[in-house]
């Protein structure tokens, strides 16, 4: 059984890194008493993505809570106290590809949480697409349809802009 993972994101505290977390939350994020950090809790069986920016470089990690030795070696990342199972590390241009893929699978589908509860094999295959072929929309659509049995929405540029405008308001 995978346990919930709490990610502590610097809010007012000055640290040598910034952190952005994206995934399916199991609780409402809350600010600690000192207003230095925001705590995000992700469900134990879900996948989430951590985007770090350090001085001079950036990294993104697709991870889930570590369960046992079958997950491989557990990793510890800044801002996370629990052990994590690493699925994929993105750096450089691959971070931008990962952001684009997440946008397609969450924002365009109007369901920010469904993709993060898909099985780990989906995420390993998606990571391979990002690493090898820059994850073309058609490849993402085929993978999505295989795991969800639903078609990936094909939005026009006008429809995408309308979704963005609603989110800004």
- Helix content bin: 25-40%
Question: How do the strands line up in the largest sheet?
Answer: 2-5-6-7
> What proportion of the residues form beta strands (DSSP E)?
25-35%
According to DSSP, the number of beta strands is 7
Strand count, sense and barrel status of the largest sheet are:
4 strands, antiparallel
- Radius of gyration from the alpha-carbon trace, in angstroms: 16 Å
What is the residue-mean pLDDT, rounded to a whole number? 86
**N-to-C series of helices and strands:** EEEEEEEHHHH
Low-confidence stretches: none
Spatial shape? globular
- Termini gap: 40 Å
DSSP helical segment count: 4
**Helical/strand content category:** alpha+beta
Structure description:
The longest helix has 15 residues. The strands form two sheets. This protein has a four-stranded antiparallel sheet with strand order 2-5-6-7. It has a three-stranded antiparallel sheet with strand order 1-4-3, with no helix packed on it. The mean pLDDT is 86. It starts with a strand and ends with a helix. The chain is α+β, with helices and mostly antiparallel strands and 169 residues long. A hairpin with a 5-residue loop joins strand 3 and strand 4. 31% of the residues lie in helices and 27% in strands.
